[in-house]
Design a protein that fits this description.
282 residues; alpha/beta; eight-stranded parallel beta sheet; binds zinc ion
Length: 282
């Protein structure tokens, strides 16, 4: 089984996670830039973080046989912080980098006017750079948040087939798919979507344009949720081709629109050699 996790924050995860993900079948992932939990105090904090997503984290992933790509953006929460918004002016030079496969995560957190501005500006940046966009939908007031997001997407220069709407659930999946966008589901240990609810969504809506991710980060989360959904699909009567479509071909098709996915055959690098490089970097 081959698995592509289209949304996971590896900066917050350990090398044990990389090893367990490889053993579970994960061969590729996309790491969106996001909020650190601690507010950033200047745009320079973004630059160091973006550089880590472009350099250090792909190296770490490669030691465990996993292809690493990223999406870069001003995240929805920090779109409200005037100390952070100047990063928008610097984004174009980062979006030109080879391993950036989308602009993201962008979207709404509290649905403020500042978030309206950042979302519209970054959808335009995606269109300007020929990149797709990863759009986070709010965790509170989900359906209103989705509709407001879709209004901004419709007014943007970006075609819906270049937009992935993420963190969907049963209340938002139909309108998301009807819009022509791709539909992402984050599977969490004990809140929001779980494996069984995901199976029901797949039964009711099919497998076209649907992606599943772990969204694992520094909070309570599980980087093996993609594999757990795959196993639950097989137990529920979906076949291996369905699993491959949802867990591999759909994310490859979506992020492949960037023209930048590099999915050569990956094997774990020499862990011994990797560790000596890690020590050298300390
Ligand atoms: Zn995220």
């Amino acid at each position: 089984m081959r698995i592509f996790d289209p949304h996971i924050h590896m900066t917050s995860r350990t090398t044990d996670d990389y090893r367990a993900m490889y053993d579970a079948g994960v061969r590729a992932l996309v790491e969106p830039s996001f909020w650190l939990g601690q507010p950033r105090t200047s745009p320079a904090s973004f630059f160091d973080y973006f550089d880590a997503l472009l350099g250090w984290e792909p190296f770490r992933a490669s030691q465990y046989g996993i292809a690493h790509h990223c999406t870069l953006a001003l995240n929805p929460k920090e779109a409200n912080d005037p100390r952070c918004t100047p990063v928008l002016e610097a984004l174009p030079r980062y979006l030109a980098k080879d391993s950036v496969v989308a602009v993201g995560e962008i979207g709404y957190d509290s649905m403020t006017p500042a978030e309206d501005h950042a979302l519209a500006a970054q959808l335009q940046l995606a269109a300007d750079h020929g990149l797709p966009a990863l759009v986070h939908t709010p965790h509170r007031d989900k359906l209103a948040g989705l509709h407001r997001t879709l209004d901004v997407v419709r007014e943007s220069a970006l075609a819906p087939e270049l937009v992935l709407l993420d963190h969907l659930n049963e209340t938002t999946v139909k309108d998301a798919l009807d819009s022509g966008c791709w539909a992402g589901f984050s599977i969490y240990p004990d809140t929001k979507m779980d494996e069984d609810r995901m199976i029901t969504v797949l039964r009711n809506h099919g497998t076209d344009r649907i992606l599943v991710n772990s969204a694992a980060d520094w909070g309570k989360s599980d980087p093996l949720k993609t594999r757990k959904v795959a196993d639950t699909m097989l137990k529920a009567g979906f076949d291996e081709d369905d699993v491959d479509k949802v867990l591999w071909r759909n994310p490859v098709a979506f992020y492949g629109r960037s023209g930048r996915l590099q999915l050569g055959t990956t094997a774990p690098g020499s862990l011994h050699e990797g560790n000596s490089i890690l020590r050298g970097g300390e």
